[in-house]
Amino acid sequence: METYDVVIVGGGPAGFNAAKSVRELYPDKRVLLINDREELQIPCSIPYVIAGKVPLEKNVYPLEKVKEFAELLIDRVVGIEPATASLFTPTKKIGYEKLILATGWLPRRLNLPGSSLNGIYYIDTSTEGVKRIKEEIEGATKITLIGAGFISIGFADQISKAYGGKEITVVEASEHVASGVFSEEFESEMVESLKAQGVRILKRQRVKGFEGDRRVKRVITEEGEIESELVLVFIGFLPNSRLALEGGIKTDSRGFIEVDSFLRTSADNVLAAGNCIAHKSLIDGKTIPAMLASVSARDGRIAALNTSGPQVKDEGVVPAGLTEVGGKFYGFAGYTEKLLKGDGFKFKALSVSTTDAYPGALPGCNPLKVKLYFTERGLLVGGEFSGKSRGVWSLVETAARLIEGRKKAWEVAALLTTAFPPSTPPPLLQPLQEAAVKFLKG
Ligand SMILES: Cc1cc2nc3c(=O)[nH]c(=O)nc-3n(C[C@H](O)[C@H](O)[C@H](O)COP(=O)(O)OP(=O)(O)OC[C@H]3O[C@@H](n4cnc5c(N)ncnc54)[C@H](O)[C@@H]3O)c2cc1C
Asked: What residue segments make up the domains of the chain, in order of their start?
């Protein structure tokens, strides 16, 4: 049996970064990364591949690069045995000093009458799978997307912009799009933009099943039926944690691998990182869904650092994300209106409208909208942002880091941010600071 200092199962952002960081931090360690697929696509940019903005071959996930810093084995790990510090593929037994499980996510599937009909697709990150979905979209006229979360509306936006003459329907069981993270004013703007692009959004409609011969023809909801030649199901992700579970490692009630703040699992010398683990909110310590490449990439680094003993603590996650709808970016950080109300938090929301460049006469200067959420005592807990500029990202990022630093309104008001006419808000109307001043004014 060959034994490595560090074995990593899974080559997504968590596993990739773990392998890279182990090599950079501990160059003497022998590292093996095992991934069960050789060629896959970068998931985040699949909507842009579907829309024809990025060629399929330019969106290939760079798994090969792992070879620059670790040994790469394309194989499926079928069992782990923490008691003997070993794992198994169908043909090999491999030993480890430290094991990092980074087995990622699986799409949540529907188990409804007719759900095995042809023409019903789930997210598939293989190059072949993305190619097939793209061809199906090109050939279909009546397309139904199930679920109106971040990924689904990103797809609906790109498909409706890229292809004319399609009847696109998004069916959502709740009364919100984008997982309800945006307040009414932001959400209705997104919905209106999608409508203007010809996307029909049906909220509060639960799918009961599908009808067709061999191929789907109709989506049946509690309210009626939708003629559909193609169905794309986006109802969320599940942790891929079977390997851990079968190896006797503790998982929570939803199947996420339980880890301590050093990303150590319940088994000796086994760490875990990325979408397969349970994450805690830095705001209130609750377990939250954080199935994002950004979080996985960070987890991979933390796990790598901790292969040589507990060094770096995962203090928790501030939820944050972005999407693009109707040519605008919409982002959020922390806890926003619906969540705060649902949790019975007392909060104040302050909105500021500014521009993403200055002066207003500068070509390409566009409106930028910010809404910040503070607790009654002035602690920043959330924010929503929208605008045409990629600078929306920097507001999401700054707000997330301020929330992480548990900053209060007076500290946000005193924040220093850079200014440059073509790429930032004007120094006289800096949105985060202005929102904080509004809070302080009462
Ligand atoms: C369409 C789409 C858009 C997205 N957009 C964004 C975005 O804009 N921003 C963002 O932050 N996130 C986004 N995400 C989420 C992001 O892609 C995931 O959070 C990220 O891929 C998770 O990384 P991971 O390393 O934890 O797991 P994964 O990427 O799932 O990697 C796990 C790997 O382990 C392999 N594996 C599993 N079991 C075994 C085994 N037994 N043996 C060997 N190998 C195994 C899997 O095949 C896989 O390659 C998006 C996802 C999708 C689908």
From this structure: 2-106+238-308, 109-233, 329-441
**pLDDT of 375-396, one tens digit each?**
999 999 999 999 999 999 999 9
Class of domain 329-441: alpha beta
Burial of 90 (0-12, 13-18, 19+ CB in 10 A): exposed
- Let me know if the fold of 2-106+238-308 is the same as that of 329-441: no
The SS3 call for residue 313 is coil
CA of 311 to the centre of ligand 1 (A): 25
Testing ligand 1's pocket by substitution, the residue of 105, 137, 238, 323 carrying the most ligand atoms inside 8 A of its CB is 105
Structure tokens of 244? 């851990």
For the residues 286-312, what does the mean pLDDT come to? 95
- In 16-131, beta strands by DSSP E: 31-35, 71-74, 79-81, 86-88, 93-101, 105-107, 120-122
pLDDT at 442: 86
Question: What pLDDT was estimated at residue 241?
Answer: 98
Alpha-carbon distance of 225 to 212, in angstroms, equals 12
pLDDT single digits (tens) 12-44? 999 999 999 999 999 999 999 999 999 999 999
Tell whether ligand 1 has an atom less than 6 A from the beta carbon of residue 94. Answer: no
* Domain 109-233 CATH assignment equals 3.50.50.60: yes
Instruction: Look up the pTM and report it.
Output: 0.95
CATH number of 2-106+238-308: 3.50.50.60
Single out the residue of 107, 137, 135 nearest to residue 122, CA to CA: 107
Q: In the structure encoding, which two tokens stand for residue 36, read together?
A: 């069960």
Judge if the beta carbon of residue 239 lies within 6 A of ligand 1: no
Q: Alpha-carbon dihedral of residues 268, 269, 270, 274, nearest 10 degrees?
A: 130
Which of the four pLDDT bands, split at 50, 70 and 90, describes residue 328?
very high
pLDDT score for 164: 86
Q: How far is the CA of 400 from the centre of ligand 1 (A)?
A: 22
